[in-house]
Amino acid sequence: MKKLVSAGEILVEIMAERIGQSFLEPGPLLGPYPSGAPAIFIGQAAALGQPAGLIGAVGDDDFGRLNIERLRTLGADVSAIAVHTGHATGTAFVTYRADASRHFVFNIRNSAAGLIETNAAATKLLAGADHVHVMGSSLFSDRAIAVALSAIETVKAKGGTVSFDPNIRREIMQASGMRAALDQVLARADIFLPSGEELFLFSSAKDEKGAVDELLARGVSCIVLKKGAAGAAYHDRHGVIASSGFAVDEVDPTGAGDCFGAAFVSFWLRGTAPAEALRIANACGALAVTRKGPMEGIFPLETVEAFIATGKSAQ
Ligand code: ATP
Ligand code: MG
């Protein structure tokens, strides 16, 4: 089976308990939950049985141990997660507003996560990789950008493939070279997985079809547009396949896009037809939102298949 690798932020997430809760005053919190978009992605891929490993860094502390242990339990290769003394594991505090938008307080660049590098363990992991997945949120510093771009080059040089989810988090994406890096990653991507408005960050077109056509003409093989509770649409040069989501009670949307992407990419790598890969991805995204905490809604393939067999389509 093909092995997939991602590189980037490994964090714990700490969540405000109440909707609309402000971080300007003390209040009840939930967590720590293991998190970080590439960690969620790799954890979900591993849970589906895909060989998957992560390049990143944590502190020599309980938050770091929580993350490594969770990824190991899910079956991921954690050999390229560096453990640093002197820096704490990265954190993300999140509160949900009444309009369903999210407000984050991140500590990434100045945490152990900021020490990410292509060290010997990362080089070894990449030597065995067939595919690299890049999250836009992982391009949080010049150093992190260098790691992502070098991972892409290594895997592409031996005929491997690349997927890219912009996963825009305005709070963290202040690296000077970030915009150029987003464009560079997209230019190397075989699979592009934007959600909502992210599609239009990379195109001058005003509608979905126009933007998709422009990106396909620029060499992206396929575009998978995530649409929250409405499911997703897959586009390639043959046309579009729309797939409605599954009806679930959403308790926490964070992580849905990462679980969706991991499932789609894992099944794409196995040669599964796009319509079927989309169905499994929709199921993983739906299951992800049924649990508080971004990695708590990661389930093994058997559970996902049982959910598909019995789950209610959103339409
Ligand atoms: P993230 O918050 O992880 O960045 P995203 O914006 O990248 O998420 P979404 O479109 O929110 O991605 O969700 C990804 C997928 O998860 C959707 O395409 C859908 O399959 C599934 N999903 C998300 N929310 C729901 C929901 N409320 N009900 C059912 N399925 C959902
Ligand atoms: Mg996302």
TrEMBL record:
<dbReference type="InterPro" id="IPR011611">
    <property type="entry name" value="PfkB_dom"/>
</dbReference>
<feature type="domain" description="Carbohydrate kinase PfkB">
    <location>
        <begin position="44"/>
        <end position="296"/>
    </location>
</feature>
<keyword id="KW-0547">Nucleotide-binding</keyword>
<dbReference type="GO" id="GO:0016301">
    <property type="term" value="F:kinase activity"/>
</dbReference>
<dbReference type="InterPro" id="IPR029056">
    <property type="entry name" value="Ribokinase-like"/>
</dbReference>
<dbReference type="InterPro" id="IPR050306">
    <property type="entry name" value="PfkB_Carbo_kinase"/>
</dbReference>
<protein>
    <submittedName>
        <fullName>Sugar kinase</fullName>
    </submittedName>
</protein>
<dbReference type="InterPro" id="IPR002173">
    <property type="entry name" value="Carboh/pur_kinase_PfkB_CS"/>
</dbReference>
<dbReference type="GO" id="GO:0005524">
    <property type="term" value="F:ATP binding"/>
</dbReference>
<keyword id="KW-0808">Transferase</keyword>
<keyword id="KW-0067">ATP-binding</keyword>
<comment type="similarity">
    <text>Belongs to the carbohydrate kinase PfkB family.</text>
</comment>
<dbReference type="Pfam" id="PF00294">
    <property type="entry name" value="PfkB"/>
</dbReference>
<keyword id="KW-0418">Kinase</keyword>
